[in-house]
Structure formats: C-alpha cells, structure tokens
Amino acid sequence: MNRLNRRQFTSLAAAGIATASMPRLRAAGPNETLGVCVVGVNSRGNEHIRGFNHDPRTEIRAIVDIDESVGQQRVAKVAEMQGKKPKFFTDIRDAIDFDGIDILSAATPNHWHALMGIWGMQSGKDVYVEKPICHNIDEGRALVATAKKYGRMCQTGTQCRSSSAVRDAMQFIAEGGIGEVKFARGLCYKRRASIGPLGDYPIPEKVNFDLWSGPATFTDPKLTRRNFHYDWHWQRHYGNGDLGNQGPHQTDIARWGLGLNRHPNAIFTYGGRLGYQTERKDKNYVDAGDTGNTEISIYDYGDKCIVFETRGLDCKTTSGPEIEGFFGNEGSNKIGVIFYGSEGYLAQTSYEHCTAYDLDMNVIKDFRAKNVGDAHFANFIDACQSRDASKLNADALMGHLSAGVSHLGNISYYLGEQNHGSPDEIRQILAGVKSLDDNDATLKRTVDHLVGNGVILEETPLSIGAQLKFDPETERFIGNEAANAMLTREYRKGFEVPAPENV
Ligand SMILES: NC(=O)c1ccc[n+]([C@@H]2O[C@H](COP(=O)([O-])OP(=O)(O)OC[C@H]3O[C@@H](n4cnc5c(N)ncnc54)[C@H](O)[C@@H]3O)[C@@H](O)[C@H]2O)c1
C-alpha cells in the first residue's frame, strides 16, 4: 500500500505543501468493511463507538485518547462488543499511520476539532467531526477547504440533520406550511451549575496534558478548573460556552428552516456569567468558567432574523407564556427552535419531535422520529461508500455556518464583557438594533429570569456586547479589527491549523 509515514506526512502538512495528488493511504472497495478510528472517548465518544458498532459496514480498529485510563476502558468495551480488540493510541498522529483506517471520528474537546478533521482528511480518511466543528471561524473555513481539496467526506455531528421529524418539519416550512417565515428563536435553556472556583488543580494521572492542550494555550502545570473532563466547555480557550455547545444543534435548525445558507450581516449579544455568586452566598466568588451562562444574541440576515437565547440558571417559572406555549412549564430545560410564520408556528422541541400550529395555537401537524443518532452515522457511511459528498446530511459547510452563528455571537459578548449596563441602558441600545423580535419583551423575560434566580443586577450587571457588522462573503467584520482578531487564535508550534489556502 502506498503510504506516507508520520514524519513525511506532518512535515508536508506543516509546510502547507500536501496536495490533492498526495497518495491516498487506503482505498476500501465498495463492499469492504470500513475501518474506524474513534478519537476522544470519555463521554460523547461512547455514542460514536455505539453508532459504528451498530452498523455492519464498519469495524472499530483503533481508539485514541490522551487519557490512558479512559482509552483502555473503551478498548476493552469495544473488544467485548465486536469480538476484536482495537489498537490503542494516545497520539492521533500515530493512529493516522496505522493500517486499515478509513474513517476518523472525533469527539474530542472543541479546540481540537478542526485539526483532527484536517489531519484526518489530509491523510486520506473520511471524517465525522463533532459540533461545533471548529473553535473559531477561520478553522471552519479551513475544514471546508480541506474537504473540497482532498475530496473527502466530512460529516458534522449535528444529528438533527438526519432526524426524519426535523427533516419533514423543515420541508413543511419550505412548502409554506406556516406561511412566510422570516424569524426564528433558538433556545438553550439548560441548567448548568458552577464548575467550582478558579484555582490551581492537579492534572490527573495518565493524562497527557500537552496533547490535550494541542492547538490551545498550554497552561501546564496549572489546571484552572476542578474537573479535568467536560468542564472545559465553559473555559473559552477550549470550549465555546453553551451558545457553542448545545447551541450549534439549534442554530443549525434555525438556519435550515429559514433557508439561510450564509452568515449574518450584523450581530449583537448581551449577557453575562451570572448567578453563581448568589448560589454560593459570596459576592466575590469567581467561577473557573469564563464563558457566558446567559446570552441573548440577535442575528440580522437582512430580511430575516435569528435570536438565540442561552440560559444556564433555573428556568422553571420564568420562561413566560410565549415560550411555555410551545414547551410547557414542566422541568427546567427547554431546548429547541420556534419558527414564527405569517400563518402559524413550528416548534422543534426535541431531536425527535416537532409540532406545527396555526395562529390560534391549534396543532396542525406533528412530526416524530426515532434513532436519530444512528441515522446520522448511517448517512455518513452511505456517503463514504458511494464517494458522494452531496449525500451528506451535514457537510463541512453546514457545520461551519452553524458553528459560525455561535462564534459570532460570542465575539460580540467577549468584546463587550467589561461594558456593563442596567436593563434600562440595554433597552435604549436595543432600540437601535435591527431585529424581527420584540427586543423589549425578550430583555424583560431575561431580566425576570435572572432576578427570579436571585441575581442582584446592581452588583453583578449584564454586559453589553459590541454591535458588529459582518461581511458574509469575505467572512470578516467590517471596521472592527479587535473582532477580526477573534476569528482565529494563536496556535502552538506543531498544532497550527492552516489557513484555507494552505490546507
Ligand atoms: N452531537 C451531540 O449530541 C454531542 C453530545 C455531547 C457532546 N458532543 C461533543 O462531543 C465533544 C466531546 O464532548 P464530551 O462531553 O465527550 O467531552 P469530554 O471532555 O467528556 O471527553 C473528551 C475526550 O477527548 C479526549 N481528548 C482530548 N484531547 C484529545 C486528543 N488530542 N486526542 C485524543 N483524545 C483527546 C479526552 O481525554 C476525553 O476523553 C464536544 O465537542 C461536544 O461538543 C456532541
């Protein structure tokens, strides 16, 4: 088999001279079992293992995790499930060299997604990359360019794209089922506790923290959060807050239903990381997370508009009838999208369920699905076998645009983080923000929710983000260099994500 070894591959890729003519590492025949390497297997990676194990067309041949104790447990589990032990690696670059791998499936933290996808595709593999497929906008562009240049399949882990309920509901909207639709509201009302005080915590044994940090800042020997796994979501060097965690599922559906295959023209976010001081009864408490747990992001697409509401505190009693009408008042979490049409509404209330209403809130159609996750892996495998990227339900461009909604909203928030204001001051600013929402009503609901959770806004006020203008074609902010600087990051040597023209 014609292969590049690791040294040749990494030096070509680093020099930006890996080309489409680079030899493919493997060319599985149409009926051959596809070899899978699952990367990052603590939590979501288990679903990747389950999904590929479930499909008879694939076999899991390698597991990669920088935490050896987690990785070895999954190796034992896969050996038991499929009767064949996969090889274990801690370094993705060694796994890329391993024979018999056709698919790389990544469920690592967000700061690694783009590089995993790019390295995988440059070495001749098809890739399934979790949402958000990138940690910043430029990384998304690079992934799109890589998939195109190397002719690889790149599926984004937004599995609602393969939900028959959501697909049928989006078709219903496209066919005019609720009239003309120009506005969608995405909701991530998802209770998130404090991740503990900002501190200096030990790195767990059997963890390679250098590799975990990869393209992000290397803070060794300091871990600033209590829990090593998962809680990185709320530290911006690695994660993207809940706007960029749960958010991309809903921003994706909102764009889909509105037919928006592009970035917005203007963005404004207000919010904060609020409420943990009240919970801890310590107004000086500093949580280790530095992403917003409360964000209202307004996206102007010209004649259409998306508003995305992120809440991390309890939402039981403070949603307001306009939300509860679609989601009910049971439980705290409300995650989904509401489309507002000229003749009715459509609410996506879970990955398996959507409901269409007339303007009097009578149900006109119900959409249900099963096994959404399996369907998404199966769709990816269909595309890998047929070598037809147009079959992918969530290709790299879809993933990039939907992650982009979250990244743009967060950039507005980060730029205005120190610019605090009272609800009255925010109301005055909102009067000048173009939106198809009732901006005052959404602000009032947000303030009621915070006050209802004991937040004293005079002590811990909301932040007023930057009002940003964006050029969807060039993917650059207009007249704001501080914002443009946040479209990328500083990469560590050896972990650079190439520019799109250098993939
Ligand atoms: N599609 C979905 O519904 C869904 C659901 C949950 C999570 N996710 C996504 O999955 C990803 C992982 O989330 P999680 O909750 O499992 O996080 P986690 O922190 O629990 O697990 C991440 C795993 O990746 C490993 N890892 C980190 N860097 C690595 C590297 N360079 N090489 C190999 N392994 C590495 C970690 O050791 C850990 O085992 C996130 O991006 C998240 O957004 C998607």
UniProtKB/TrEMBL annotation:
PANTHER family, A to Z = BCDNA.GH03377 (PTHR43818), OXIDOREDUCTASE FAMILY PROTEIN (PTHR43818:SF5)
Q: Does the keyword Lipid metabolism apply?
A: no
Q: Which residues form a coiled coil?
A: none
Q: Please state every residue range assigned to the domain named Gfo/Idh/MocA-like oxidoreductase N-terminal.
A: 35-157
Its Enzyme Commission number?
A: 3.2.1.-
Entry keywords, A to Z = Glycosidase, Hydrolase
Record protein name field: Glycosyl hydrolase
EC main group:
hydrolase
The Swiss-Prot or TrEMBL record annotates one GO molecular function as: hydrolase activity, acting on glycosyl bonds
